[in-house]
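Exercise 3.2. Students should predict the tertiary structure of the chain below and write it as structure tokens, then compare their answer with the key that follows.

Predict this chain's 3D structure.
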Amino acid sequence: MFSVMTNPNEVNADRLFGEIAVRLFMTTRRDLDRALRAQREAREAGGDPTLGEVMVGLDLLGQHQVQAVLRAQQIYDERSVETLYGKLALKNGFVSQGDLDLALKVQQRTGNRLRIGEVLVKKGFITWDQHEALLRAQERILTEVEHLESSKQARVTLERPPTQ
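Answer key:
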């Protein structure tokens, strides 16, 4: 069996695409793993499908969902998402600053493999229900940011004087 050399940027883009789809509750981690396996098999067979194409082909996502994830991917910044999650947890009184600092240290020790919310749940600082509530709040905020960004772009386009 041979191994297909994949571009590290493509792999990172696929991981980010999958992570966003999971965070936006469009798919489950189990379905994401299934799609990643199917994508790997397709690449080993000589194809080069994107993760979105594979997920549509497996009826795990619709085309409009793929487009939404791609739009979110354009504004996604992992550092700001982690910071936003922590700020929301603090603001809502779910954790103390000490709890959050400890969870961030654990996250760093794991090489950032675990999300801050996963660490907070595993350490017992928040419940799973609180974690899901924070994810939903974060999603609403990120969606609003995306909406504001697209509105700002549309305004700039509309306000630009016509060229002659």
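Discussion points: The longest helix spans residues 128-159. The helical segments are 8-23, 29-44, 51-57, 63-75, 78-91, 97-109, 116-122, 128-159.
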